[in-house]
Every structure is written in C-alpha cells, then in structure tokens.
Amino acid sequence: MKFISRQPLSSYVIAIFIIVTITGGLLSQIVTNQIILAVVLFMQFFILLFLVVRFHRDYIKPLSKAVETVDEILNQNYYARFQYAPVSELVIELGTKLNRLSKHLAEFSIQEQMQSEHLSTLIDHVQSGLVLIGKKGYVELVNRKFLTMFGNEQKDYVGYLYYHVLDHAIFEETVQNVFLYEKRVKETFSHYIGTEKYYYEVIGAPIMNEQNIVKGAVLVIYDITELKKLELMRKDFVANVSHDLKTPITSIKGFAETLLDGGIDDKETAREFLTIIHQEGNRMQELIEDLLVLSRLEQEDLILHYQKVNAVELLQDVVLTLGQQAEWKNINLTFENDLDEIWFEADLPRVKQVVINLIHNAINYTQEGGDVTVAVTRKDDTIQLSVSDTGIGIDKESLPRIFERFYRVDKARSRYTGGTGLGLAIVKHIVEVHKGKIEIDSEINKGTTIHVYLPVSKDLV
Ligand SMILES: Nc1ncnc2c1ncn2[C@@H]1O[C@H](COP(=O)(O)OP(=O)(O)O)[C@@H](O)[C@H]1O
Ligand SMILES: [Mg+2]
Fold first, then answer.
1. CA angle, corner 181, sides to 174 and 148, nearest 5?
2. pLDDT tens digits for range 87-126
3. Is the CB of 391 under 6 A from ligand 1?
4. What region, left, alpha or beta, does residue 418 occupy, with left being phi > 0 and alpha being psi -120 to 50 degrees?
5. Average model confidence (pLDDT) across the chain
6. pLDDT, tens digit, for every residue of 17-37?
7. Best of 241, 373, 408, 438 to mutate for ligand 1, by most ligand atoms within 8 A of CB?
8. Is 44 exposed, middle or buried (CB count within 10 Å of its CB: 0-12, 13-18, 19+)?
9. Which atom number of ligand 1 is nearest to the Cα of residue 425?
10. What would the pLDDT profile of 291-326 be if each residue is shown by its tens digit?
C-alpha cells in the first residue's frame, strides 16, 4: 500500500505508455489501418489516464494522507486531524472515523494525565508515609511524608533494593513477611529525629494482579507519636491517682487498726486518731471531687451555661468566702477595684471555681503575713482577672509544667496544704472552654501573679 501510495503520478503515466505500446504492438497484427489504430490507442491512453488520475485523486492521495495522520497519532500527537476534500464516500467515512479516533485518544490521554496527576498529588499529600516496592524488591516510589519522616531524597531510594535503602530492620522484616505470607502485616517501632522520639506503625500489604500473583508490596507508615503520648499520659494519670488515693487510705487503715487494737480505750488518742481519719477522708473526697470536675470538663459534649456575670460581685463573693482561710494564716487578702460592676458572659460556677483555685493557691503558697491581691479590669472585649501574691514563687523550669495534672513544685508542701495537684489543671481547662487564656509571672521568693483573660461575650468566642 505504502509503495502504491507513494508513487508520483508521472510513474503511472509511464506505466500507461507501456500498456498502450504493448496494446499497439498487439493490435497492429490485426488492424492494418494505421489511422484507426492510432485513434484507438489515443482513446485507450486518455481513458486510462482519466481513470488513473481519478483513482489517484479519490483513493491513493487521501489514503496516503490518512497514513500520515495515523503516523502522527502513533507519535502521540492526538491533535492530528485528517483533512481532505470530500472526494468520495469512502474518504469521508475514513476521515470522520479517523478524526473521531484521534479525538477520543486526545480525551483519553487528558483524562489519564489528570488521573495520574491526581494520584501523585494524593500520594504526596497523604499524611502517612508510603513506599512501593516492585516484585523484584526494588523501591519504585516513596512519597513526601516518608522523606520527612526518615530523611534523604527520592533518588536515594527509588531504583534501589529495599533492604539496602530502608534503614529500619522492621521495614525489611515487614516486606519479607508480606512477600512470604502474601498477607497484610502490621508492626510498630520507634525512631529518633534528633533527640525527639517518634512512634510509628507500619502496615505492609501485597499488591496482587488479577491472577492473584504478587506484583509487589506497599508499606504505609503512620505517625502514632501523639497516640503513644496520650497512652503514656493515661498510664501516668492512673499511677498518680492510685498513689494519691493510696496514701490517705493507708493512713486511715493504720489509724483505724490502732484504734481497734485498743487505742479506742484512751479517749485522748481516740479523738486524735479520729481527727486524722476525718482529715484523710476529706483529702480523698477533695481528690475525687477534683477528678470528677476534670472528667466532666473533658467530656466532648460539654455544655457551658452562659449567663451575665458581674465580675466585681463574683470576686467580692470569693474574697469573702476565702477571707477566713487567709485570716488563719494572717494573710492580707484584698480586692482592688474602682468600679461597681464589670459585666461579662460566662458559666458562673465554673469561672467561680477558677477564681477560688487561684486565690486558694495564692494563700497556700504565701508565708504568714504576706499579701494576696485580687483585681479585675476590662480592656476592649476582654476581662482580665488577676491574682497576685507575695509568696514563695515558682522557678523557671517548673513554670511551663504547673498546669499539668498532679504536677507540684514541692509535693510534700502541696500535700501538707491540702492540695490535690489538680487545681491549675482545672483552671486551665475552664479558661480554655471559655476560649480565654492565662498568663503567669513568677519570681522565687518574691511572688506570683496569674492573669486570666476571658472574652466579655460568648458571641466573641
Ligand atoms: N501562687 C502560687 N505560688 C507558688 N506556687 C504555686 C502557686 N500556684 C500554684 N503553684 C505551684 O503549682 C503547683 C500546682 O498547683 P495546683 O494545680 O493548684 O496544685 P496543688 O493542689 O498542689 O495546689 C502547686 O503544687 C505549686 O507548686
Ligand atoms: Mg491548688
């Protein structure tokens, strides 16, 4: 076909000449009249020439054009179109079908390109590390997250055997097990980035083709550091609660046993021991109450009952309630204010709890004869509640930790003053659910000031 189509028209003319000459040679045997012979041969020449020109125009040329278009398409130029005068039905049909074909291929290639772009964007933005390993064990793909987790660049992994480039023994083991058992495998491991310890979960899965033959393996690596930290915190929390409950229980048990062993007969001892039992009972009750408050605050569906609160009145109230306690310690508890009312919206009992806990601490951690000052001001859309003391202060290292549950700078002192170690954790929670913030200033042996900022209206939250 290619051979015919590429012949120039002149070669056909030559071929016609040869045919006419042969015909002339043959006819000259039969036809004697030279004129008739010449006329016949002329007519034959022109008829043949006419037919060849038509055939060339209608079929050969369009076909060679079609072949060119197909060549273009084969070279992945899906925008190549077959353009030719509609000289015959066949050419029209060939043209429309060829153009439809290249249009479909163009659409298909755009779709394919889009899909592969989507896929690579997805792979690169997925928040887990991904590694694709081929049948022969060569790494075919690692995504961006994997690189941020384990360092290096794409080119350091892709094209290498997995056991040469994936540093962790756990990766090697996982891939081997995936290939061996042709099943999903799950492992966890830890890894240091600098001095930080990170925890990961790696899931390996085989990639099967339609015939269920393993074509490779995929590793998905999740960062489970946060989860692990939560788990550790929970374990710590349980250990702390158990410890803080065990101390008063042991004490109660001990004194009760002594009483049962005869201590009860001596009125004086009995009174003393029962007082201790009573105090330890109170301590347990406080701890359990604080735990309940915290657990309620941590509930997902916590509802705050907002109401209009006069901050001045609230502080006066609390100062009055805790006045007695301050007096026992000979502490000068004062409330500085110039205004009669400063209104804001909050869950009253909860904000009251914040103020109680702060003043409580200020009294607890201030020596006899010291000062505790409470103040409230409004700046724009924010209420600022402040509690200052001239007490023992908090050292710089402990400052960031005092809002943690059960964290006490001086455990013995906190226990002695009846602290549960949960007061500030509760404060922080309540302030956070009100979308406020806390600031703390402290200097050892000089004193501490804690500022609480709360939005004046819940609509600002
Ligand atoms: N006003 C303060 N002055 C000095 N230290 C404080 C003050 N408030 C809190 N702290 C320190 O922060 C720790 C945590 O406080 P908190 O959560 O209320 O627990 P606690 O039950 O021990 O009072 C306290 O044990 C104490 O060491
Ligand atoms: Mg406290």
1. 20
2. 788 888 888 998 899 899 989 989 999 998 898 888 888 9
3. yes
4. left
5. 90
6. 899 899 888 888 888 888 888
7. 408
8. middle
9. 17
10. 999 999 988 888 999 999 999 999 999 999 999 999
Residues in the chain: 461
User: Which atom belonging to ligand 1 lies closest to the Cα atom of 411?
Assistant: 25
Q: To the nearest whole percent, how much of the chain has pLDDT over 90? A: 56
Cα torsion angle, 170, 176, 177, 183, sign: positive
Better-scored residue on pLDDT, 459 or 295:
295
Q: Of 3.30.70.120, 2.60.40.200, 1.10.1040.10, 1.10.287.130, which CATH number belongs to 228-297?
A: 1.10.287.130
Domain at 127-223, CATH from 2.40.50.140, 3.30.1360.70, 3.30.450.20, 3.40.50.2000: 3.30.450.20
CB-proximal residues (5 Å) to ion ligand 2: 361, 419, 423
| Cα end-to-end span (Å), the chain | 80
Tokens read off for 448: 């501490």
Looking from the CA of residue 422, the nearest atom of ligand 1 is 17
Sole residue written with tokens 């384990």: 150
Distance from the CA of 40 to the center of ligand 1, in angstroms? 126
Distance CA 223, CA 212 (A): 31
| Ligand 1 atom 22 nearest Cα | 421
Q: Is the CB of 447 under 6 A from ligand 1?
A: no
* Rounded distance between C-alpha atoms, residue 362 and residue 369, angstroms: 13
pLDDT beyond 90 at 55: no
Q: Which helix (H) or strand (E) is 449 found in, with range?
A: strand 447-455
Instruction: Give the Å distance between the CA of 339 and the centre of ligand 1.
Output: 30
Query: How many whole angstroms from 394 Cα to the centroid of ligand 2?
Result: 13
Q: For the chain, which residues make up each domain, given as ranges?
A: 2-112, 127-223, 228-297, 307-460
pTM of whole model > 0.85?
no
Token code pair at residue 16: 């016609």
**Residue 294: both structure tokens together:** 């915290």
Q: What is the DSSP letter of 107?
A: H
